[in-house]
Every structure is written in structure tokens, then in C-alpha cells.
Automatic annotation (TrEMBL):
This is Acriflavin resistance protein. It is found in: Cell membrane. CDD domains: TM_PBP2 (cd06261). It comes from Rhodoferax lacus. InterPro entries: MetI-like, MetI-like_sf. The lineage of its organism: Bacteria, Pseudomonadati, Pseudomonadota, Betaproteobacteria, Burkholderiales. The chain crosses the membrane at residues 45-66, 99-121, 141-164, 176-205, 225-248, 255-276, 288-308. Keywords: Cell membrane, Membrane, Transmembrane, Transmembrane helix, Transport. Belongs to the binding-protein-dependent transport system permease family. CysTW subfamily. The keyword Glycoprotein does not apply.
Amino acid sequence: MPDFVWAPACPVSPVSCTVSADSIPNPGRIPAPPGNKPLNLNLLGVLPFFVFALMFMLLPTAYLMVGAFQDAEGHFTLNNLAGLLEPNVLSAYWISFKISIASSVAGGLLGCLLAWAAVLGKLPGWIRPTLMTFSGVASNFAGVPLAFAFLATLGRMGLVTILLRTYLDINIYSTGFSILSFTGLTLTYLYFQIPLMVLIITPALEGLKKEWREACDCLGGSTLQYWRFIALPVLWPSILGAMLLLFANAFGAVATAYALTGSSLNIVPILLYAQIRGDVLHNPNLGYAMALGMIVITGLANAGYMVLRSKTDRRSA
């Protein structure tokens, strides 16, 4: 009889012939046809945001850009851009620049110190949540209510003005101060600039690792050396970027300035409003050109903030 030798069906080791459960096709599963990806329903959650951005940001911006290069009859012209070089328009831009820079620098420094005291200072535990709650409310408190609040506080018959004159014999208006001036508007802007800075810079302060301070102390470094060589080099992009965001926020503010000063202070948003809706200065296309200039300036400020923010994210990663 011939010898029969049994051999495995697989020429390799039996281990390699084992079949995993994942390799067995599921008879109840119908494979999706190639090239047809299922619809991601999560996009429906952000659809309202895109609709809002399209209707209230992109389309109005495109309308302003087109109107800035048209005359009253709808013909193409560059006279509107040339009108930006008129003395009253340049003066409005310059005053807006000064107010925005003053409020962003002062608000940035004061807000940064306030956030540092709340986050890293050894203060009672109830102060930080109270400060953050107040900052969230105050950063959005603007327009007519804010203007009325400052008029009732620091106006000629305001509460603080009367108290200083009655009990301390100090008349702030005799020194040249006016709530309707550059100083008064800057002081009013600080009410929402400081809380906004607190909200922006707090996460950066929380990102400072305790190990960095402990390593500095172990190496014999002082508090001044820690902030000079470790903390500030890490924080300066966040601080500068937040100030750029405050600058853009103040440069585009119109309701507070108009309700507080009316037409007595020649800043860009008020002059723009007079060009589009006014009876005397009525040149809508010049107003569109001024709005385009504001969009460019605030866009550059926001772009600088995003660049500095990305640099901060890379350092903290």
C-alpha cells in the first residue's frame, strides 16, 4: 500500500493560517458603494453660523467694497478713495487712531494686571469667579446705556462730579476735563476694554506652568528674573495680540461715541454715519470708502492678533 502523508492545506505554519474574526465578512453588512461618502450631519450644527456670517458680514462687506468704487450713478470711479485724503477725513482717522491706541494700551495694561492679581495673586477664592463674571457682562456693556451711565457719573451734574466738588472741593471741569472730549471718550472706552482684556489674557496666564517657577527658584532666580527671562517672553505675544484686538474693538465702536459726544468729536464712525445718513454731509459712496478703510485697518489688527495667537499656541504646545 502506498504511504499517504498528511500535509496542512496551508504551506506555512499553522499559526499563519488562523483566521481572525475581523477577516470574516459580515453577511448582514452592505458595503457602501465606492465614491459615495455619507453626509456628515454634524455640519448642520454650524450651518446657522455660516448663514449669519454670510448675511451680516460677507454680503455687507462686499456691498461696501463695490460701493466704494462707484459714483452716485453707479459708474466706476476712484474719487471716493481720493476723498479719504481730505483734511476732515484724515483728521477723523487720526483722532480714531489716538483713541483706539490710548484705550487699547491703557486697557491692556490695567486688564493684564487685574487678571494677574486674580489668577496668580494670593487673593480670596471668591474674587476670581466674581471678576470673570463681571468681565463677561461689562465687556458687552456699550452703546447708549454706557454713555448715559458715564454722563450720570462724570458729567457736569454727575454724581462723582458733585461729590468731588462738595466734599473735596475739587472741580474736575475747571482743569479742562470734559466727558465729551478725547479724554472722556477714552475713559468711557476703558469700561469695556479692561474687562475684555481680562477675558483674553486669563487663559495665557493660566498656561504658565508651575514647574517653570519652581525651576527658577531652585536655580536661585528671583521673582524679577522669572518674569523678565521666563514669563514675559512667553506672555508677550498674547499681550500684544490682545492689545491689537482691543484696538480693533475701539476703532469700530460707534454707538457709544455717538450717544456720548454726538457730532462734537470728529471720529471715523461718526463721520461715516454723517456721510451715509446725514442731511448736510450726504455722500454715501464716500461713506462706503471710509467703511472700506475701517475694514482694512481692523482686518490688519485682527490678522496680527491671529499671527501672535498662533505663535503663543506653538510655544505652549
